[in-house]
Amino acid sequence: KRIRNVSQKEENIRCLTLLGHFGFECLPYQLVNRSIQQGFSFNVLCVGETGIGKSTLIDTLFNINFKEHKSSHFYSNVGLRVQTYKLQESNVQLKLTVAETVGYGDQVNKEASYQPIVDYLDAQFEAYLQEELKIKRSYFEYHDSRIHVCLYFISPTGHSLKSLDLLTMKKIDRKVNIVPLIAKADTVSKNDLQKFKSNIMSELAGNGIQIYQFPEDEEPTAQMTSLKEHLPFAVVGSMDEVKVGKRMVRGRQYPWGVLQVENENHCDFVRLRDMLLCTNMEDLKEQTHTQHYERYRCHRLQKMGFTDVGPDNQPISFQEIYEAKRQELYEQCQREEEQLKQKFMQRVKEKETEFKEAEKELQDKFEHLKKVQQEETMKLEEERKQLEAEIIDFYKMKAASESLQAQTCTNTKKD
Ligand code: GTP
Ligand code: MG
């Protein structure tokens, strides 16, 4: 009876087909739409020796010909060439920034080769921090240039890492997600490549170098496990189209055959591309923000004197820190002012004594000259008196002699 009732009811029901999703199951679609409208941005740093294949790999990854100039081997310092491209694939826009090292590994003394790279990474963090600290922030227009991934190109020696590789990676591993790559992997045989890969991984671990860690899921997917196993990715880049059978494929033509860039049995290019573009780009960005930038921000704010807890381990507010800093600065200014005053007084005193000494010296000199002059005058006066006496004597003698002469003449005449 009941069954009959149901079927009677069903006859009266109008069946509607769903036109779309409804309820909060739609939330992800809002995110997708917003992301498509805003577009995506991705910042890559390529570190590797000159001519190791950095530009070719970027071209192959993004399927575009950037027509890059080749660098010379004679730069005295390592530099960075940064370029930003606006790419579009169907309705998805991507703002890609590529920073490529110039002259890396070309100097005789390679000790400071890592410094420009470290400075560049820090400068991008600093720019973001300054934007974050502004009162009026404009995240929408702001171009976030923090590097999301560093593709480190290892020379295909088939042997082991160079000390320059270890030094540089050690210096940047807390600042960026490092993905190690064996460049020009077509130059290493399959057997050598396996040994080379395991040598590199054990050397990295032995030196405590932290490379990019794939996200740890409870149940890791087969794809993730495969990606991890293939690290460091042995990559080959090429923009050349080569004919294989009836198909045109991207590859490198050799006298003995064709290396297909997008063939997983030939190299790890596809694994790298999948990881960067399809599976891990968002995680790379997230790790950049939550780990590397956070570390930089924490260090910088602590250096500026900010802290979350006071000396007594009690939470301390921003206002309190600000007041304490202001007081500290005021006291420091006072101290410096006092020091400057004292220095000034000291200098004035020194100058005063200097002037007094000079004055005394001049006075002494004057007194001495005066004395000499007085003595000279007295001497001259004496000489003058003596001369006058001599003149008087002379006139006396002259008069006496004249009178004597006159007497003698008179006596002679008388005779
Ligand atoms: P600079 O920017 O000048 O430092 O060089 P780069 O590292 O960008 O290298 P670039 O991509 O300009 O490649 C240099 C040369 O290496 C070119 O002749 C490329 O054809 C060749 N090359 C690039 N990738 C590969 C590769 O995977 N295998 C082989 N065998 N050659 C490659
Ligand atoms: Mg280049």
From TrEMBL:
InterPro entries: G_SEPTIN_dom, P-loop_NTPase, Septin. Pfam families: Septin (PF00735). It is found in: Cytoplasm, Cytoskeleton. GO terms for cellular component: acrosomal vesicle; cytoskeleton. One of its GO terms (biological process) is protein localization to perinuclear region of cytoplasm. One of its GO terms (molecular function) is GTP binding. Residues 319-390 form a coiled coil. Keywords: Coiled coil, Cytoplasm, Cytoskeleton, GTP-binding, Nucleotide-binding. Residues 38-303 form the Septin-type G domain. Belongs to the TRAFAC class TrmE-Era-EngA-EngB-Septin-like GTPase superfamily. Septin GTPase family. Septins polymerize into heterooligomeric protein complexes that form filaments. Filament-forming cytoskeletal GTPase. This is Septin. It comes from Loxodonta africana.
